[in-house]
Amino acid sequence: MITLAEHLLRQSKELEGKLTAFRRDLHRYPELSTHEAETAGKVAAELRKLGYTPTTGVGGHGVVAELAGDRPGPVIALRADMDALPIQEETGLPYASARPGVMHACGHDGHTAMLLGAAELLMRNRDRLAGSVRLLFQAAEEINAGAKAMIADGVLEGVSEIYGLHNLPTLPAGQMAIRYGALMGSVDRIELTLEGKGGHGAIPDQSIDPIVAASAIVMGLQTAVSREMSPFEPAVVTIGSMHAGEANNVIPHQARLTGTVRTFSEAARQSMPGRLDRLIGGIAQAYRCKAELRYINQTAVLVNHDGPAEQVERIADLMLGAHNRKVAEPTMAGEDFSEYLLHVPGSFFWIGSGPDREAERAYGLHHPKFALNEACLPYGAALLAAIALLRSGQQPD
């Protein structure tokens, strides 16, 4: 006699062709954050075909649908993201992006297809459901804005637990990985303006050079981590852009820099604004420049709750086998699913999306040649459906 988890995986593999076709359509017509109207329309249309009554326009272009069982129980939320990236695709696939400069290079098209697959599996097995399942198709994850907007529109009201996943191209399809506690780093943005005094490049003594000050600040900021934080407290400060001047023989009046700050604990995150402001202010003053720093909080550290993470492990073992469940490595990459976990218990995990053979090269997330191994789609759909059913009160067979 097969278990419920095995039963769901069998059903999910029957949907593989359908999920692949839907995912490829999204891949061919990607949409950037806050512009996902067409994608949301396709998702809502598929949900209606399955018998759901979706609500659109939630937290921007988000789509929400709920399935209620016949017995009382908790509300379990499942979430997928829908937005693409401003990247020119270089895969050469027949279904490659038809929109110049826009690509699903992070696999959100696959996540959306997986949650739609879970929606169909849940509808097929509705008689097993206690309580209800709330499906969240979220916009604007790539700009760290979608989750907060969804929460502001009330998607977590009454929710007992929430679960989500992300594909991982370094893990073969058919495997998954999860970690207790902190899994992904916080994401904050810094914007710095340095004001000097412009002048002739050949007469620097009559100017105040913001480029030299900016260069010193870029180097000095590295001490915020290397000399002011414990080696056991991970953190990253990266300056990603610097713009100043137009001519080779002119000292500009201003320099503008932007960067990202990543930490792996809330305490470390809270310490960073003051630390960076002090370092920047001191270095700028030494170079006679005025500095204006904007520190913009974006996304919290993603911290899995122990209970839900343990249940995901148990369900993954039932479905995939314990040998296909891995311990996830921590990463400073961010995910705004972390915002949901600040409000309700839940867990986030990786689903393998890489080649079946280790010898085959897998391009990473956000790479113009990133290609999802579509064999992962039924696994993701089945895991999400199994989590919802088993966490709602259905006993494993």
From TrEMBL:
Top-level enzyme category: hydrolase
Domain Peptidase M20 dimerisation as annotated: residue spans: 190-267
A Pfam family the protein falls into: M20_dimer
Entry keyword Membrane: no
Keyword entries, A-Z: Hydrolase
GO terms under biological process: diaminopimelate biosynthetic process
Enzyme Commission number(s) of this protein: 3.5.1.-
Molecular function in Gene Ontology: N-acetyldiaminopimelate deacetylase activity
InterPro entries: Amidohydrolase (IPR017439), Peptidase_M20 (IPR002933), Peptidase_M20_dimer (IPR011650)
Protein name in the entry: N-acetylcysteine deacetylase
Designated gene of the protein: scmP_1
